[in-house]
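Incident log, structure service

09:12 report received: a user says their structure output differs between two submissions of the same chain.
09:20 pulled the input from the user's history:
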Amino acid sequence: MSDNHRPPALGQPGWRQVADAFHAYACVLGALRAALSPRQKHGWHATLVLNARGLTTTPIHGPGQAIEARLDLLDGHVSLLGSDGDAERWYLNGMTARRLAELEDARVADWGMNPALAPADFDDVTLGAGSQRASRDLFGALRWSDALLKALKSCQSHETSPVQLWPQPFDLALLWLSGGRVTDPAAPKRAHEHEADDEQMHFGFSVGAGTERPFYYVTCYPAGGRFPRVELPPWARAAAAGLTGVRVDYDALRNLADPFGSLLELFELLRSDGAAMMTF
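09:34 re-ran on a clean worker, output below:
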């Protein structure tokens, strides 16, 4: 599949500013969805999913109508759509995430819903002029990763989450659940008791932060320092001290003859390794 063969390079001038800006805008959309949606386990009510041009909240249902917010990474705008025909669009060039939150909150309130967003909670970074190439490459990396994680999801018989983007860390990830429960009283507890004992693995893509380069990762809970037990290929490594799991640098992956097939094979190997440690 030629579209999946190699992800785009991420390193052109200004790409980090573009990534930071879309990260901030995604946080606004995530906050809107979280404020107006029923809670789901593992925070799935606060995530976004990819569409053909960027990210979407998917429909958010309220009294009288549903709304949906879409972040278009190809030409840099946010659309707010209502099921009764209402629509609004804001172009993001020079607009801070704080200003977007103000506009979005006011318009949704006009439509009869009250997300009560706090604009001060969002960064004041902006999308600058001349950012279209970097925006397209960023979306290309997210789209490539979305296809990879969906290919992994299609191979699983156990419960998995949707492939979704977590706005706060700006990670695109798939959660795999063994169906088992953690029995070790020393294992760290989750924020909500009803999901505290789920055995789980995360497979994801992160754009990194600051000077950090993008990377793929796998984590296993609970595993302590035992994961991974399998031998890793030279382009993958165990996470740094204080962290658990496996990390694959995006730039190293691009240099492989078959990045898609190689990473998919490693993810499945690590899933089997992690699953063998679990109690299900």
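09:41 both user submissions now match this output. Likely a transient worker issue. Closing.
09:42 reviewer note: The radius of gyration is 19 Å. The longest strand covers residues 171-181.
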